[in-house]
Design brief:
Number of helices: 12
Radius of gyration: 21 Å
Distance between the termini: 36 Å
Largest sheet: 8 strands, mixed
CATH topology of the largest domain: Rossmann fold
CATH superfamily of the largest domain: NAD(P)-binding Rossmann-like Domain
Number of strands: 8
Structural class: alpha/beta
């Protein structure tokens, strides 16, 4: 990632909780000098205070990027602190769920380049995936945002901001669905006679390993499923329950993602 623009003009991080800290750690690991970073946070962690970034100090006049990582309910109080940076020279990148680009334009000015991003919590271990969409932001600014966000995982670009609600329903909320799958898989193993500890170890490793295989393999997940399913074998017996079109996983996951997507739409409307 080319950090020369950031080095020349600085980077402001508004909010440095779990997501902000994960991104900051990724940038520092990639060689970003901490003296280029200005953190605004009402309760910075000891880690943030000790890594050499500027904490709650005066901001540069026109930083290259202002990354907004506060919780949506804190946006009304926090965002005005960046109002003076609006107008065009500073690129704003928001990772706040449910806050549309129009809401930032209302505070920062319609001439401000704004990129809305939806990361997810595996960013904490560098395995996140983030979807981005911009307003008037140009190609170079999208590239800069992608470079910054790729510090914590993959980045994809959307064609329309309306797609962000579905992204929220799939990858934004999706880690929680997978965590619950691990919980239920472990509980089912314990119900079949395994100790709770062993069942949990098996469930975690199985889900993590299958996910890694799905990403690394040339075959599709469908083909990987077929590969492990012997005719009339144990996997087929389990899949006949799981893949039932009326009572199995397909309708349940469809309803789950639809519910999360609809809630995202509701939050975006305020």
């Amino acid at each position: 990632m080319d950090m020369s623009v950031v080095a020349a003009r600085g980077l402001v991080l508004l909010g440095c909780g779990k997501m902000g800290s994960a991104m900051l750690a990724g940038w520092l690991e990639q060689g970003l000098d901490p003296t280029y970073v200005y953190v605004l946070d009402p309760a910075p962690s000891d880690w943030v205070r000790g890594i050499g970034v500027h904490v709650n100090t005066e901001l540069p006049d026109a930083p290259a990027v202002a990354l907004i990582a506060v919780k949506p309910q804190m946006m009304g109080d926090a965002l005005p602190r960046l109002q003076a940076l609006g107008g065009g020279r500073t690129l704003f990148v928001s990772v706040a769920a449910g806050t549309p680009i129009a809401a930032f334009e209302a505070v920062l000015g319609a001439g401000s380049p704004i990129i809305r991003a939806m990361p997810n919590t595996p960013a904490a271990v560098g395995r996140g995936i983030t979807a981005i969409i911009g307003n008037s932001a140009g190609q170079a600014q999208l590239d800069l945002a992608e470079g910054l966000l790729s510090a914590v995982g993959q980045v994809v670009r959307l064609e329309d901001e309306a797609q962000m609600d579905a992204v929220t329903g799939v990858s934004g909320s999706g880690p929680a669905y997978v965590f619950h799958l691990i919980e239920t898989l472990a509980a089912a193993g314990a119900a079949q006679g395994l100790s709770a500890e062993l069942a949990m170890q098996l469930a975690k490793a199985t889900v993590a390993g299958a996910g890694a295989l799905a990403e690394a393999a040339d075959e599709t997940p469908t083909q990987l499923r077929v590969n492990v399913t012997s005719p009339n074998g144990t996997t087929q017996a389990g899949l006949e329950v799981l893949m039932d079109k009326e009572t199995g996983l397909p309708p349940l996951v469809a309803a789950t993602v639809a519910a999360a997507t609809e809630r995202s739409k509701d939050l975006s409307r305020g």
